Amino acid sequence: MAINIEWQVKPPAKKEDNPQLFPRIIDSEIVGEKQLAERMTSLGGLTTGSIKAALNDLAEVMADLLREGKTIHIPELGSFKLSIGTDAEIYPDSDRRMQSVVVRGVSFQPDQEFMDAIGRPAFHWKPTTGVAIAPSASQLIPRLKVYFQTHDSMTRPTFEQLFRLKRTTAYIRLKQLEEMGVIQAVGNGKGTKYVSGKVSSSV
């Protein structure tokens, strides 16, 4: 069975670069505990009930070990470790740096044996709404002018939703619009808002 993919646009690293496409898996079926246990039972040796119990125990044990800062390595599968970050902007003189540390997720590094077992799957291009190319900064200006006629400011999430942009693309476009003088950033970190710039009325 082939894996369904669609093509999306990768924002250019530089203004003069052409956009590049990258594939993304779509319509990915979620395999739950029951299906996983049944597939493992078909290999023989264990019952579905014992496998489900083992999976539940494994999740609990792994959570405990990761909470202790351990890296878990399962032969022929790979290694698991915590991915951490901060919930605020931290500087060398910050006095609450330790309190800001949070868990972002769990990173997984597969073993080569696992990757070899996956091999090279078959892929099928399944166009959905076609390749959606993100608008350039210049193309966003007219709609921004309309927006600021009824709004004093805009947050990054609002900008993403208004123009249906992915987070990375939105970040790039906001920086470009700032450099063009169309908008101006006010505040720092998560509290940053964007207001109409000096040149927006004349663009």
Strand content: 15-25%
Uncertain regions spanning at least 5 consecutive residues: none
Specify Rg, calculated over alpha carbons.
Answer: 24 Å
Major sheet summary line? 3 strands, mixed
What coarse outline follows from CA principal-axis ratios?
A: extended
Can you give the mean pLDDT? 86
> How far from one another are the termini?
52 Å
Number of helical runs?
A: 6
Biggest β-sheet: strands ordered side by side in the sheet: 2-1-6
Task: Give a verbal description of the structure.
There is one protein chain. This protein has six helices and eight strands; from the N terminus they run ββααβββαβαααββ. The protein is of the alpha+beta class and about 200 residues long. Helix 1 packs across helix 2 (about 50-65). The model has no long low-confidence stretch (mean pLDDT about 85).
Give keywords.
alpha+beta; 6 helices; 33% helix; 203 residues; single chain; extended; 3-stranded antiparallel beta sheet
TL;DR?
With 203 residues, the chain is an alpha+beta fold. It contains six helices and eight strands; from the N terminus they run E-E-H-H-E-E-E-H-E-H-H-H-E-E. Helices cover 33% and strands 23% of the residues.
What are the SSEs and their pairings?
Blueprint (H helix, E strand, L loop, with lengths): L2 E8 L9 E6 L7 H9 L6 H20 L4 E3 L3 E9 L14 E10 L1 H7 L4 E3 L11 H11 L8 H8 L3 H13 L3 E4 L6 E4 L7
Parallel strand pairs: 1-6
Antiparallel strand pairs: 1-2, 3-4, 4-5, 7-8
